[in-house]
Amino acid sequence: MASPSTAYQGGSVLRGLPGSLFQLWFLGSSVLILLFIAAPLASTIAAPTWERLVETLVDPAVIQSIWLSMSTSGMAALIALIFGTPLAYILARHEFPGKNVVESIIDLPIMIPHPVVGISLLSLTGRDTWFGTFISDLGVEIMGTTTGIVSVLVFVGLPFYVNTVKGGIESIPPRLENVSRSLGAGRGHTFFRITLPLSWRYMLVGMIMCMARAISEFGAIIIVAYHPMTAPVLMYERFTAYGLGWSQPVAVILILVSMLFFLLLRAFSLPKRSGI
Which of 20, 176, 219, 253 registers the highest number of CB atoms within 10 A of its CB? Predict the structure, then answer.
């Protein structure tokens, strides 16, 4: 532990720090971070010629891949809404042994390398496994199908949805639900009449974040379903087959789509708490 005299000397050094140097550090760091993110994206957007960009926009393969990315990402967000909301509610409202383990499992898809996600799904659903045989008998195929793509996107997008909705439900005072139950309403009635109206914005933001994460997925998709091609996979193929010039227009479209998602996220961002 630092002695009082050492702490005093340290405080003296901080008090002697010029305010202009402090402001220069903050301003300079902020500008560098913005440039670090914006400069590569701006150079990508400016790279393709207008003719090539228009040619890419009307390319049926590009249109199909973007639609596939959008539709499967939307489906993943819908699945996250239906199946992730109950889990988010349980984590927000209940304490139980092993809760930290459950929360760590939910966060795992954020941490683990994306090809591991694809390998894990195939390890479970491969035709040489009992579960793979079971779902195959039901007519469900994962490898090389849209179902496989949606499975991957749900896997990588769920943490964003569950954590967002969990935080939203935690911000709602439990006493409102307790009052509802004390007046005779059941748990389901209380959820749909009290919790849902107060947390719908968090759910919407969670779905947008889930979609935004899903639409950029690449590493797991190329293992589970290289075909049909999503937009990131198509961009990768054009880069490896034709070079940078033919992949940039697709990249521009993906950047613009991602920007649209985050503009939506800002538009629906949560208002300041008004003290419920």
Answer: 253
Please list, in sequence order, all residues whose beta carbon lies within 8 angstroms of the beta carbon of residue 146, skipping any fewer than 6 positions away: 68, 72, 225, 228
> Taking the alpha carbons of 32, 38, 44, 47 in that order, is the dihedral positive or negative?
negative
Closest listed residue to residue 211, CA positions, set 98, 74, 106, 37: 74
Full-model pTM: 0.83
Contact call for residues 202 and 164 (beta carbons, < 8 A): yes
DSSP letters spanning 73-91: HHHHHHHHHHHHHHHHHHH
| Structure confidence at residue 23 as a pLDDT band (50, 70, 90) | confident
Q: Identify the three-state secondary structure at position 112.
A: coil
Q: Which residues neighbour 70 within 8 Å (Cβ) at sequence distance 6 or greater? A: 215, 257
Q: How far is the C-alpha of 56 from the C-alpha of 50, rounded, in Å?
A: 10
Alpha helices in 171-243 (DSSP H): 174-182, 187-190, 196-215, 221-224, 231-242
Left if phi > 0, otherwise alpha if psi is -120 to 50, otherwise beta: which for 158?
A: alpha
